[in-house]
Amino acid sequence: MDDVVKELDHGSSINPQFDYYAYPKYEFDYGVKDLKTGDIKNQWETRNGDVVKGSYSLKESDGTTRVVEYTADDHNGFNAVVKKVGVASHPIVYAKTFVYGHDLDNLAHSDNIIKVKHL
Fold it and tell me: Does this entry carry the keyword Repressor (predicted)?
């Protein structure tokens, strides 16, 4: 065991010039707009010390956009406000009808088409 400890101490690659306690400060943003898949989203965030602020949004499958704005700090913790922008719309779905029961063999697999609309 002493040999392992000596080897680790001897072969240490810690750089004493690197500041492991640097002041945390950054900002970033990015976005995706893929019309083929419908993947549409954005995000940005900033940090200055222990205060983080940011927002992200994404296009929902119902056509609305979800927007989340958030802050975090030592005093207030994490807080987020979620908004839904736009009016939800669902596509019209066409479905075949199937009728089951006694004496209904002729109607068992109808080709009647019904229109279903989600409200």
Answer: no
Show the 3-state SS of 72-87.
Answer: EECCCEEEEEEEEECC
Any domain includes 38: yes
69 assigned to some structural domain: yes
Higher pLDDT, 76 or 1: 76
Which residue range is the domain that position 54 belongs to? 23-85
Nearest partner of 54 among 43, 66, 65, 40, judged by Cα: 43
* Total-model pTM: 0.60
Tokens of 104: 């209904």
How much is the average pLDDT of 41-49?
Answer: 97
Domain assignment present for 57: yes
In a domain, 109, yes or no: no
Strands, E, within the chain: which ranges?
25-34, 39-48, 51-59, 65-73, 77-85, 93-96, 113-116
C-alpha to C-alpha distances, 18 to 9, 50, 105, 108, nearest whole angstrom: 18, 21, 81, 77
In angstroms, the CA 52 to CA 78 distance is 9
Q: Residue 99 has what pLDDT?
A: 60
